[in-house]
């Protein structure tokens, strides 16, 4: 009887694979895992965010002939971190690995990672930055620099030295994710960092070298907006979860909007009077904020089609009322002598930020 057709043993290792539009990589990845994990009872859990290319259907096609393959199709939910959490909590295997569905992580490192955790580590990280590991051709020069900067920022907060905290390739004991799960943000792309920063005790970490490979099929899901998501995760952990992660993201987008406003204003005043230039800059900044929030802060309830344009108009109204409140509160504090202009301005800006966030969350991007 072929090995894939034998009654499967209870899985010792579950390999969780978050996916979006990776149909072409499903079968090659299963074949690679089959070769790499000889002698290990394993299962693969594909967690697909309702890919239009039929990723979940391809995983189910393989599952029909191989009971080690499972597919979770998520409808109305999206995000690599939350997909990983859902997949990890859906298995009873004592050891769980996370690997990307694009074949860039080297599955051949999994046995060494499993051996490290069996030997006492809580988490084994596939690392590109220890001896024997390398970025290879998997990252462009720009993405490599961004990853390096993100790793530096992450290491400032980590309770344990990790050379590659930005890795998306790791293996851990099931009890580690079970304990950390209630504290995870479930946002963004850096689930390993979220787990390391959410653990109640300092985890024992082992780093296993691997070479990051170039993608052979499909397209990368990463873009510049991921940087804001990553910054929001770090700030969330820095503040100990006191501020909602979505509010942090909203505030970061607002900071970008300030830069957009100033840049447009500096160009507009060359041809318009100040009042007109201020209105133009305000409109452009509000539009930029809307698109960034729709793509990043409220990614899970992103507006599309007609709802997108209705949301944009409503966002203009919300921010317009916030601007009126900003001017009113700051002017009142200044005129009544309760605060100097810096404090009055800050109070007005804070009120505006909270107002815009609260109303946007309940009206513009209300949960569906």
From TrEMBL:
Coiled-coil ranges from the UniProt annotation: none
Record-level GO BP terms: glycolipid biosynthetic process; polysaccharide biosynthetic process
PANTHER family: DOLICHOL-PHOSPHATE MANNOSYLTRANSFERASE SUBUNIT 1
Subcellular location(s) of the protein: Membrane
Gene3D superfamilies linked: Spore Coat Polysaccharide Biosynthesis Protein SpsA, Chain A
Topology class, membrane: Multi-pass membrane protein
Glycosyltransferase 2-like domain span: 15-178
Family statement: Belongs to the glycosyltransferase 2 family.
GtrA/DPMS transmembrane domain segment(s): 250-365
Record protein name field: Dolichol-phosphate mannosyltransferase
Keywords: Glycosyltransferase, Membrane, Transferase, Transmembrane, Transmembrane helix
One MF annotation (Gene Ontology) recorded for this entry: dolichyl-phosphate beta-D-mannosyltransferase activity
Domain of life: Bacteria
Membrane-spanning segments: 247-268, 313-334, 340-359
GO cellular component: membrane
């Amino acid at each position: 009887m072929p090995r894939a057709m034998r009654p499967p043993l209870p899985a010792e290792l579950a390999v969780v694979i978050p996916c979006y539009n990776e149909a072409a990589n499903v079968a090659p990845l299963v074949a690679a895992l089959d070769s790499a994990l000889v002698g290990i009872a394993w299962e693969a859990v594909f967690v697909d965010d309702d890919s239009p290319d039929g990723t979940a259907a391809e995983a189910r096609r393989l599952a029909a002939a191989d009971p080690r393959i499972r597919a979770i199709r998520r409808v109305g939910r999206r995000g690599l971190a939350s997909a990983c959490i859902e997949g990890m909590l859906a298995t009873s295997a004592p050891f769980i690995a996370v690997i990307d569905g694009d074949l860039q992580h080297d599955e051949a490192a999994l046995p060494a990672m499993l051996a490290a955790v069996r030997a006492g580590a809580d988490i084994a990280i596939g690392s590109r930055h220890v001896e024997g590991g390398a970025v290879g051709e998997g990252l462009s020069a720009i993405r490599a620099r961004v990853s390096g900067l993100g790793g530096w920022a992450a290491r400032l907060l980590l309770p344990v030295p990790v050379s590659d905290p930005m890795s998306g390739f790791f293996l851990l004991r099931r009890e580690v994710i079970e304990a950390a799960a209630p504290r995870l943000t479930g946002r963004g792309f850096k689930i390993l960092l979220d787990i390391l920063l959410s653990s109640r005790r300092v985890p024992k970490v082992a780093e296993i070298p691997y070479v990051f490979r170039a993608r052979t099929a499909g397209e990368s899901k990463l873009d510049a907006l991921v940087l804001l998501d990553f910054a929001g995760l770090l700030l969330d952990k820095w503040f100990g979860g006191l501020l909602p992660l979505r509010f942090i993201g909203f505030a970061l987008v607002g900071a970008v909007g300030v830069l957009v406003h100033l840049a447009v204003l500096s160009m507009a005043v060359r041809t318009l009077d100040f009042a007109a230039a201020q209105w133009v800059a305000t409109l452009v900044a509000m539009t930029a904020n809307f698109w960034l929030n729709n793509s990043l802060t409220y990614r899970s309830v992103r507006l599309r089609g007609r709802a997108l344009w209705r949301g944009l108009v409503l966002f203009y109204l919300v921010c317009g009322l916030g601007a009126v409140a900003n001017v009113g509160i700051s002017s009142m504090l200044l005129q009544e002598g309760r605060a100097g202009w810096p404090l009055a301005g800050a109070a007005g800006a804070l009120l505006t930020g909270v107002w815009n966030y609260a109303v946007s969350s309940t009206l513009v991007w209300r949960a569906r």
